[in-house]
Amino acid sequence: MRNRSVVTEFILLGIPHTEGLETMLFALFLSFYIFTLIGNLLILLAIVSSTRLHTPMYFFLCKLSVCDIFFPSVSSPKMLFYLSGNSRAISYGGCVSQLFFYHFLGCTECFLYTVMAYDRFVAICHPLRYTIIMSHRVCTILATGTSFFGCIQATFLTTLTFQLPFCGPREVDYYFCDIPVMLKLACADTAALEMVGFISVGLMPLSCFLLILTSYSCIVCSILQIRSAEGRRHAFSTCSAHLTAILLFYMPVVLIYLRPTPSPWLDATVQVLNNLVTPMLNPLIYSLRNKEVKLSLRNVLHHLGFLPEKF
């Protein structure tokens, strides 16, 4: 405990090899962050304001939008703060909080995508029993479970990282506190912990991905048995948005955490895409090909005064 208390704050060095680009990056990331917040808030308003969208699929989409609001908020405000010329220092407690909430929200989204895949599996493969299987009670339990298990995973990873002694240096060669960069600053041998963290971070997304793959394999088999072309088209359209969001979520995880030889610049670039761009794109992905969401969004924008009455 004595050694751990030596370092009371860390210095975030930011994205590697971007010296002199602070003003441009500030404007770019601020616009991404604002669009992310507005887009996901509009999706929430559209779903809450329309009784036709009060179904399990949109209930889980609501939770995804909430996660997509908070997920970039873990690292973006501090990043924008120092990009605007302010201090790059972050307290020890702030660093712990960043790492915990980043993995808590990330793991929650990972579990949530798995639950959403199960929801589509039940809707397409067992349509007559859908309302019975996906009852309000079941949906509440599943939604709560995603946060509960996300919290357990994040607590384990945070404890694993910060039980190490940090006695200097204190420069974090990244734009927020994450496991790989924090392990480099520890004043102890981290080889065993790196392996445990690698297995933990890799095993959880892999397990979820295999469950998603199983759900969609069953979904594809069921869709191919639908005789009408219109029925197949409608079934595919309801799943395509979810599949696109899953790919955007999992590709950065694989590139950042599961590569044997990390690259700071590539990791930071992919991490920015994962933290800011993917949450910004999710509202577009789930609304562009969904007539009900688009109609509800028009109504919301009309009531807010952004659209004329005859639009």
TrEMBL record:
Entry's PROSITE patterns? G_PROTEIN_RECEP_F1_2
| Record-stated family | Belongs to the G-protein coupled receptor 1 family.
Residues that span the membrane, as ranges: 24-48, 100-118, 138-156, 203-224, 236-258
- At the top level, the lineage of the source is Eukaryota
Short name of one Pfam family: 7tm_4
Q: What is this protein called?
A: Olfactory receptor 149
User: Which keywords are on file for this protein?
Assistant: Cell membrane, G-protein coupled receptor, Membrane, Olfaction, Receptor, Sensory transduction, Transducer, Transmembrane, Transmembrane helix
